[in-house]
Amino acid sequence: MKKLNLLLIVVVLSLISCSNRQQSDEKLSVPYEQYQLDNGLSVILHQDKSDPIVAVAIMYHVGSNREVPGKTGFAHLFEHMMFQESENVGQDEFFKKIQSAGGTLNGGTGNDQTIYYEVVPRNALEMVLWMESDRMGYLENTVTKSAFANQQNVVQNEKRQSYDNRPYGYNSWLIATNLYPEGHPYSWTVIGEMEDLFNATVDDVKEFHAKYYVPNNTTIVLAGDFEAEDVKPLVEKYFGEIPGGEKVEDLEPQRVSLPETKKLYHEDSFAKTPQLTMIWPSVEEYCDDAYALDFLARVLGDGKKSPFYRVIVKDKKLAPRAGVYSNSMELAGQFTVSVNANAGTSLAEVETAVFDAFKLFEEEGITERDLEKHKAGLETQFYSGMSSILNKSFQLAMYNEFTGSPGYIEQDIEKIKAVTIEDINRVYETYVKNKPYLATSFVPKGQVDLIAENSVDAGIVEEDVLTATEVDQSAIAEEEVIEKTPSGFDRTVEPAKGQDPEITVPAVWTDKTENGMKVLGIKHDELPLIQYSIVMDGGHILESKEKAGVASFLASMLTEGTATKTPEELEEEIDLLGARIGVYSGTENMAISVNCLTRNYEKTLALVEEILLQPRWDEEQFELTKLRMINNIKRNQASPNYLASLAFDKLVYSDDHILSVPGSGTLESLEAITMDDLKEFYNKSVSPSVARMHVVGKIDQDRVMAGLGTLVANWKPFAVEIPKIEAPQAPEKSAIYFVDVPGAKQSVITIGHYAIPRSSADFEQATVVNYKLGGSFNGIVNLILREEKGYTYGARTYFAGGKNYGTFRASSSVRTTATGESVQIFKDEIEKYRTGISDEDLQFTKDALVKSNALEFETLGALHSMLTNISAYDLPFDYVKREEAFVKSLTPEMHKELAQRLIKPDQMYYVVVGDAATQLPVLKSIGLGDPVLLEL
């Protein structure tokens, strides 16, 4: 249940290039029908019959801004409660029923809103309306002390995972409590204070729910494949009898100002590099200045020609990047500069450089070409958002709640078009230049000398791992039977879903170029967009361990200019096309990926040809890239999750194996890489003989192949020797290994072993078999560790891998004091799972995996992934149908046999990253011998 920044989603969806002359007169909108029930519920219907699926989004106009000091975190806490159960939908049934229908669901809480959403095959729509209406109008009686206590613990562990147990995690709290005056609705974080979460009572949250989670404070959006005349009676049936609440008045904007600059610092136990954040108070969303501030942020910080890149990254080499952001919310806004500096860098120097960048901006000003560049990509982004019915439902709900009209998109676009150079300069003068700001310096423990000048200690008190806040669930007596609220019909009866929609696998065409590159494509005519990639076998597995990271280094360098274009010129050419072009290196491949408007296919392909065949080998960018990669590793070393993955790979593959080191390299290997190493790797790996192209979107095969003419003619093939990945030797027996992070608020647990590769015929079967163990929210380990015990925000198990390698892993981040019991639960449940699962659990697995195929072909990204899987693992075009047939044929006996063959509890590595002083002794009782303390 992620706290979605829904405002950003909507902003992306609503943007459109007003510089593109071919499209400047078009009006782009999302057609809808709107009406209101008698109880005040706003209903919006948007039909999209391109796929047999429906999205339902319910937005409650309540976020953390409706809370009061001493009772913070309620909106987010209640979001969790609404996934537990309602009067007529049983415990943990929300996820189970939606997944069994082949759907997906989640929710999110922000400062200003809470949203719940589902995407399901069209035959499950009535079931969704039944469930959503039940938790809107028939939930309060299920908020029992025991259910509430469980979610209090879950949210506390979410806070530890997302804020307390990670680098710079306290920064959002520091900003909220110091940018806004005490009592302001934004003066606390969405997740709330740990003390408030602990002290909250059932009566508190019931009162909060009764006030804000009412029809007249809510918008429901249905988007997808349905008929309006069919769904309107269903909406009335399920929601119409829910009483409206007292009128909830919209909050008025509450802008803030700082009387003087305020600077705070914190010695961060997890940080390895210093970070400076500077925030200026700004304006609420949808006002004219909010649009100009967004463009100001883009002009200052986006791209290699921006003042912040040129001063901070390129000239002074203080950081790998410098971010500038404008975030306008319902009541107020923030204009933010964020710089995660290189290791050992003084934040006083960074602060000075920020003002140098502002000075450069003032001296050079903004040109019309600058505006054109920053607007050019917005049309592509708009259409990309339009490809998803879920995104469209978010957009319609957000506009309705915050502007009063789902059709506000047209005004939104006009306001973007109306922004001028004068507007951008004006908001800079009004809100940023010479204005007081809040600055936060986060520095590694013991490096106070790196803080910005005149900063004072923020006084952050970190939680003691041994006295971690926890609600004692065992002390709460069992509640009586839940009382049912009267209804005009029997709400205990789940609506019948009817026949599942027939799944049509998209048609795939194939071709081959004269230089040996295989081409696969899917024509998808819904939007004027295409997505394509050229993938070459190789990547990390072609490296020597001594030069690990060279493939990733090369991938970064290939977009740093070409033989005829400087890095800045290449970036500008891409931006002016409204395209995205990136080069990426993976474990077994290197890929160049493109997203663009269909009309720009040939122009982007010309740039792709330059990038692939005419590298610039820019010496300055080489040094900047190396510096960035080294500092990324230093930052990663502060992440318990990174350390867990690093330790696990070292154990599984042993020291001599290339997969025992990350594809990003090590500090030693990166320091050793030279420009000649990049050229050598390029000359032995970038060949069409090992390349495959994947194209999806509104383009036909003939045009795709014709556009490849010059690339094919100029790209000469040569043989690339792909090394065979040898399977590592399995351990004689399972054992526990520990990585010490003193004072860690959580323990990161990773358990597993080497397993079958993704290319194995058994891989899909392994994924199916794993589903109920930990492959979904309703997996056994998550239901126990999260929903029953409240030890974690989530627990999972999964098979992963590539063409030549694979692993099975179980993982979770748990409260430090629950480490031993959590490891024991993982061990016990993995062993027990191999003895077989119930018929009910098997049917849940079958339903969830087969019916969810209806959702698999909606977006260009999904179709592109389908093509890359087909080409990488030599799958048949209808592999989805083949997998479907296997799932349907699965019996309890087959499931048991596969589980016993593919999951090996006696040959597992148990890796725990946490506080060794308190947790290492605890793990001795697991029965796997004394834990081994690892030094990474």
Automatic annotation (TrEMBL):
Taxonomy, superkingdom: Bacteria
Cited Pfam families? Peptidase_M16, Peptidase_M16_C
Keyword Chloroplast carried by entry: no
- Could you tell me which Gene3D superfamilies the record lists for this protein? Metalloenzyme, LuxS/M16 peptidase-like (3.30.830.10)
Domain Peptidase M16 N-terminal per the UniProt entry, residue ranges: 43-159, 533-640
InterPro entries assigned? Metalloenz_LuxS/M16, Pept_M16_N, Peptidase_M16, Peptidase_M16_C
Q: Does the keyword Transport apply?
A: no
UniProt entry keywords in alphabetical sequence: Hydrolase, Metalloprotease, Protease, Signal, Zinc
**Extent of the signal sequence:** 1-24
Q: Name one GO biological process term.
A: proteolysis
Q: Residues in domain Peptidase M16 C-terminal?
A: 200-378, 673-849
- Recall the GO molecular function terms of this protein's record: metal ion binding; metallopeptidase activity
Q: Write down the PROSITE patterns for this protein, in alphabetical order.
A: PROKAR_LIPOPROTEIN
Q: Which family does it belong to?
A: Belongs to the peptidase M16 family.
In its UniProt entry, what is this protein called?
Insulinase family protein
